[in-house]
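Help needed: design a sequence for this.
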């Protein structure tokens, strides 16, 4: 997969590297139907950036989340909205489990 890397100017406060991939590469990496991905983009559930040439770029960190969404959509015949709700709830549960482990570890 070809990744586009944006490197900040020396002395800037932005992260050192930020990986992005184009639409085609993102669809291939996530195995999602382009129409479903378009629904996610239009609903702002997945954020995109546009280049000066109006090319759509996705963050590579979103690949696992969109893979999970595509799997749920296919396997359970859910709507796009249903998938987003489930994935968001699963992420919240994962966060809370990690937080609970952290709290238990500090006692």
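Sure. Designed sequence:
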């Amino acid at each position: 997969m070809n990744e586009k890397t944006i490197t900040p100017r020396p002395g800037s406060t932005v992260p050192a590297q930020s990986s992005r991939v184009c639409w085609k590469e993102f669809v291939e990496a996530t195995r999602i139907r382009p129409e479903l991905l378009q629904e996610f983009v239009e609903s702002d559930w997945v954020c995109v950036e546009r280049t000066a040439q109006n090319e759509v770029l996705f963050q590579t960190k979103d690949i696992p989340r969109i893979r999970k969404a595509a799997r749920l959509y296919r396997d359970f015949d859910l709507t796009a909205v249903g998938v987003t709700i489930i994935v968001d709830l699963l992420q919240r549960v994962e966060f809370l489990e990690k937080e609970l482990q952290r709290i238990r570890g500090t006692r």
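The chain has one domain: 4-105.
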